[in-house]
Amino acid sequence: MQTSPDRHEYPAHWEADVVLRDGGTARVRPITVDDAERLVSFYEQVSDESKYYRFFAPYPRLSAKDVHRFTHHDFVDRVGLAATVGGEFIATVRYDRIGPDGTPASAPADEAEVAFLVQDAHQGRGVASALLEHIAAVARERGIRRFAAEVLPANTKMIKVFTDAGYTQKRSFEDGVVRLEFDLEPTDRSLAVQYAREHRAEARSVQRLLAPGSVAVIGAGRTPGGVGRSVLGNIRDAGFTGRLYAVNRALPEERKELDGVPAHRSVRDIDGPVDLAVVAVPAEQVPEVVAECGEHGVQGLVVVSAGYAESGPEGRERQRALVRQARTYGMRIIGPNAFGIINTSPRVRLNASLAPEVPRPGRIGLFAQSGAIGVALLSRLHRRGGGVTGVTGVSTFVSSGNRADVSGNDVLQYWYEDPDTDVVLMYLESIGNPRKFTRLARRTAAAKPLVVVQGARHGAAPQGHAVRATRLPHATVSALLRQAGVIRVDTITELVDAGLLLARQPLPAGPRVAILGNSESLGLLTYDACLAEGLRPHPPQDLTTAASAEDFHAALSRALADDRCDAVVVTAIPAVGEGSVADAALAQALRSAAAAAPAKPVLVVHVELGGLAEALSAAASTAPQSEADRPAPPAFDPASATARPPAAEAPEGAHLIPAYPAAERAVRALGQAFAYARWRRDAVDPGKVPEYDDIDVKGAAALIDGLLARGQGLTLGADATCDLLGHYGVHVHRALPAPTADAAAQAARALGYPVALKATAPHLRHRADLGGVRLDLADEEQLRRSYAELTELFGAPDELRPVVQRMAPRGVDVVVRAVIDPAAGAVLSFGLAGAASQLLGDTAHRLIPVTDREASSLVRSIRTAPLLFGWRGSAPADTGALEELLLRVSRLVDDHPEVVAVTLEPVVVAAHGLSVLGASVRLAPPPARDDLGPRTLPAY
C-alpha cells in the first residue's frame, strides 16, 4: 500500500461490498499505486466511445503520467475508488478538490470535481450509481460539501446517474459541455432513491437464488445416501423446471449421469451457464469449488456444508474467507450450514433442500435461520390434523444457516414485492442489523403481514451468527419491532397460529367478537380469552350439544350479518356417535356461511375434531381473490353435505377457515390480527416531524464540533449541557453547587426563594425516597436547618455534593432519555420517575425521528399514564408541553449523530408547562458509516 509521507494512511473502512442492480455483487475499494496494471488492463477493455465521453477527445491509451496520476492519491484532496469483480476493475470514480477558481486546492476548500468511467460490459448494472454513493460519503468525511461534473451532452447515461441521485443540484451549459453542481448533504429524496435502489438490487439478488434457470449440485455422492445425493434427488423429484447437473470430482470419467441427471467431474465441464450451485462438500474443499463456480459465472451458492462459525474460532475464520471469496466473483451465499431453499411456484418447482417432501404451493413465505425449526415449521404447515390443524401452502422457503451473507433483510426485500407471497413468517435467532430490519419491516408490514418469533432471546446469539452488540433489553427491541408493524410472537406454535389466520382470513375491522357454538363451557373460555387479549366479546351464544350443521350455518350467518360484530369465533365439540360425515357437513356449513360475508374473519375452536379441522382446511388454493374473481357463495344443502367425504377438496376459491385446538390459541391469533389491522390503519397517516422556529441547528453543530475537539467522547458539564439543549428550546433549571451552608444561602439569594436543596452524590441522585432532597425552603433559616440535617444524616458536603435549585411548580415527575444503540439505532424512551416505575419496567420507546403522533402515543403507552391525565381527581398534566419536549429531544439526536445519549431527569410536568430539573448529555464522534451512508453488505 502507499507509504509516501505526503499520503494519508490507507482508509480500509472505505472498502465495501455492494449489490448491483442485476443482483450480482462488486467490491468497492480505494485505488492505490499497486493497481497500475489493473488500471491499464481495465482501460484497454473500455470502448473508444466511453473513452471519448470521459476525456472529451480520442484517448486510445493511458500514458505513464496518466497511470501515475490515477493511482497516486492522498485520500484527502485526491481520491479514487474502483469497483472490482474477480479482482479486476469494472469501473472507477475519482474526485479532485478544487478552489473557487477551479484549480487544485486543499482544505478548507469544500468543492471537488468528480468523474466516472465504467467498462461497457458492465454498464446498465447500476455500478456508477453505487460508486457515486460511496465517493459522496468519502467526500463528506473529508470535508467536501459539493461536487461538480462536466459531461458531454451526448453522454446521457452519466447525466442520468447524477440527476437521478436525488441531491440538490443545478445545471448549466457552456462551450458545448453540461456542467452539473450538486450538494452532497443527504436529502429526503436522495435517501429515498438510495433505499429504492437497495431494495431492487437485494430483491433481485434473492430472486436469482430462488428462481434459477439451472442448478448444479456439487458433492452429489456416487452411491445413494449422503447430503449431496439427497439434495440432488429432492430437486429432481420436485420436478425442477430448469436444467439440473450433478458434480463430483470422484466420478469415473466414463460415468455421465447420476439418478438420471447429467453428471460431471467439475462445474467447469458443464456446457452452458449455471445459475445456482448447491455446495455439499467437506469444508476444506469448498474454496476450490467456489473458485470453479466463480470462474464459470455461477450467480449464487447454497452452501449446506458444515464446519464453519458454528464450530468455533477456526470455523469462523473459514466462514469469513468463504464470504470474501464468493463476493470476489460477484456471488451471493445462502449458508453455510444451511438447510436449503424451496420455491413451489409452478414456473420453478425447486426443492434445493434436505426436506424430502415439497410443501403444498401457497401464499406464505417462510424464513428460518435454524434448519431444525425450518423442518418443524414446514411439517406443521404441511400436515392435516394434529397441533395447529389444517393445510396452508408455502410460496418460498429459505433456511439461512449461519446467514454469513444472505439474511432475513435480503429475503424481506424479495418478499415485499413478490406477487406469490401474501404472509411472511420468520424464525430469527439473531438480527444482524436491527436498524435496517426495522426499516424494511415497517415497509413490508404496510403491504402484507409479517410475523416474527425470535429464539435465543435471553442468551447469546448462536455461534455462527455475526451480530452487533446491543445495550437494549430484548423487551425493548421487541417493542420497537411491534411499532414497525411486526407481529411479535413468542413460540413457533404462535407463529403458525397467526400465519394460518392471516393467510386464510381478512383482517378484523375492530375488536368486537361474536362467539357461538355447541359448548357453553368452551364459549366461556373463549369469552375470557378475548378479554385477556384486549378484545370486546359479545356474550357467547350457546347452540346446545344438539345443534346440527344447519343450526351452525344459520347462527354464523346471523353473526356475520350483524354490524356490531367484527369477527366470529365458532366453538365446537363432537357429538356422541357421529364421525367424519358429520364433520364434513359442519365444515361445509361454516364455509358456506363465511363465504357469504368475506369481509369478516371466522375462526373455529374444536376439541378432538381432526376430521372437522381437515374438512375446514381442504382447498385447492390458499390465494386470496378479489371480489370480482370470487365465486358466488354456494347454497348450503344439508343433504349433500352429509354425503360429502371428509377429505374432499373444497372448490376453487372456497373460503378457508382456520381451526385451533384451544380457545386461547385462536383468540391470541385473532388479537394479533386486530392489533396489526389497527397498526395498518394508523400507518396510513404516521404523522410528521414538526419544525420549530427557535431551533438553532448550526449553532448546536458548532458547539458540538468545539466540544469534540477536546476529546473522542465526553459527558458534558452542566453549563455545556444547558447551552446545547438551549439551542433546541429545552431550558434546564440551573442547579448551583453548595459546598457549604454559606454557599447554599448565597445561591438561594441568587435564584430567589423558595428553593430546593438536593444531594447529587451517585447513590442519592434521583432518590427522593432516601431523604436526600428538601423542597419548598422559603427562607434562609429553613435552608440552613435543612443543610445541617442532610450533612448529619448522610455525611460531609464533599460526599453529598449538595446543590441549590429554584423550586418548580408541582406536577408529575417523568424521565426522558435518548440513546444511540449500536444495533437498534437512535431510540427515545419515556417513563415516570421513581423506583416503582423502574422496578416494573414501565418505560415506553420509539425510534428516532419521532413524529407528532408517535410522541402522543408514547406518552399514553406506559401503564402509569393515568397519573398524567387527572387520575383520582388530580389536576391533569400539560401533556402537550411534554410531547413537544419529546419531539425537541428527538430532533436534537436526529440532527446530530454525535449526541449519543441524553437524559432529562426529573422533568416536572405541571398543569401548565413543565420544568427540566436535571440533564446530562454525552457526545462521541459519529460512526464512519451509519444508516445514512452508502449501500453496503455486512463486512467480513
Instruction: Indicate the radius of gyration in whole angstroms.
Output: 33 Å
| Number of contiguous helices | 28
Could you say which overall geometry the principal axes of the C-alpha atoms support?
Answer: flat
**Which sequence of strands runs across the widest sheet?**
1-2-3-4-5-6-8-7
* Low-confidence blocks of residues: 1-6, 384-390, 619-631, 639-653
Number of strands: 39
Structural class given helices, strands, pairing?
Answer: alpha/beta
> Beta fraction of the residues?
15-25%
User: What share of the residues lie within helices?
Assistant: 25-40%
Largest β sheet strand count, sense and barrel closure: 8 strands, mixed
The rounded distance between the terminal residues' Cα atoms is 20 Å
Chain-wise SSE layout:
Layout (H helix, E strand, L loop, with lengths): L15 E4 L5 E6 L5 H9 L3 H8 L8 H8 L6 E8 L2 E11 L12 E8 L8 H15 L4 E6 L4 H8 L5 E6 L2 E7 L4 H23 L3 E5 L8 H11 L5 E5 L9 E2 L2 E4 L11 E4 L6 H11 L3 E4 L9 H16 L3 E3 L5 E4 L6 E4 L7 E8 L2 H12 L11 E6 L8 H10 L5 E6 L5 H12 L4 E5 L19 H10 L3 E3 L2 H13 L7 E6 L2 H13 L3 E2 L3 E2 L6 H13 L5 E6 L7 H16 L6 E5 L3 H8 L20 H6 L15 E2 L2 H21 L13 H12 L5 E2 L2 H9 L8 E3 L3 H11 L3 E5 L13 E5 L2 H15 L2 H4 L1 E5 L5 E10 L3 E8 L2 H6 L2 E5 L4 H9 L18 H17 L3 E11 L4 E3 L2 E5 L17
Parallel strand pairs: 5-6, 9-10, 9-13, 10-12, 13-14, 14-15, 18-19, 18-20, 20-21, 21-22, 23-24, 23-25, 23-26, 26-27, 27-28
Antiparallel strand pairs: 1-2, 2-3, 3-4, 4-5, 6-8, 7-8, 11-12, 16-17, 16-19, 29-39, 30-33, 31-32, 31-33, 34-35, 34-37, 35-36, 37-38, 37-39
Helix pairs in contact: 6-11, 8-9, 11-12, 12-13, 14-20, 15-20, 16-17, 17-18, 23-24, 27-28
